[in-house]
Amino acid sequence: MAAPGPAIWVFFYGTIMNPAVMKDFGVKATEISPSKLTGFDLVVRPRPNLVRSDRAVVFGSLMAVTHDDLTTIYSGLERNFGIRYLPEAVFATTHEGLFRPALCYIVPHMVGSAADPAFVKQLAQCVRTMGHPEWYAAHVESFGALHK
């Protein structure tokens, strides 16, 4: 059996930011750091995605995972939701203020549709679990309210 390869840093901003949710994909990160990404804003239509914005910040987690892990996660999302996330290079900031280069998976063009309020609630809970600001959790919850 081949070795899984080296772990690389990836910024996760959806429910996968929570290691407990990531385990549902069969993936366990070797390192986890609550973090934020400036220059982007979160949208949920119907799945989480990022759009460029010079006035916004997105909270999530930096996690060290392997390329095989990323294939498992993102091929599953494409298979289950028909959405193809592609990697982009970013600089994320940890809660301690350290900058770290990472990959971040973004859908270049997502056809908008209503967010599932139950999913939005789960995403907001992940934000709280990771210790991010309450105002950001309320921002996430607003996606469920917009589409009721």
What does it look like?
- By secondary structure, the chain is α+β, with helices and mostly antiparallel strands.
- It has a five-stranded mixed beta barrel.
- About 30% of the residues are buried.
- It is about 30% helix and about 35% strand.
- It has helices at about 20-25, 65-80, 115-130, 135-145; strands at about 10, 30-45, 50-65, 85-95, 100-105.
- Strand 2 (about 30-45) and strand 3 (about 50-65) form a beta hairpin.
- It starts with 7 loop residues before the first strand and ends with a helix.
- It has four helices and five strands; from the N terminus they run E-H-E-E-H-E-E-H-H.
Largest sheet: 5 strands, mixed, barrel
Identify the overall geometry: globular
Which H/E pattern describes the elements?
A: EHEEHEEHH
Query: What Rg do the Cα atoms give?
Result: 15 Å
Proportion of residues in extended strands: 35-45%
Q: Helical stretch count?
A: 4
Distance between the termini: 49 Å
- Uncertain parts: none
> Helical amount among residues, as a percent range?
25-40%
- Structural class by secondary-structure content: alpha+beta
What average pLDDT do the residues reach?
91
Task: Tally the beta strands.
Answer: 5
Enumerate the strands of the largest sheet in spatial order, edge to edge or round the barrel. Answer: 1-3-2-4-5
What's the SSE blueprint?
Layout: E1 8-12, H1 19-24, E2 31-44, E3 48-65, H2 67-81, E4 86-94, E5 99-106, H3 117-129, H4 134-146
Helix pairs in contact: 3-4
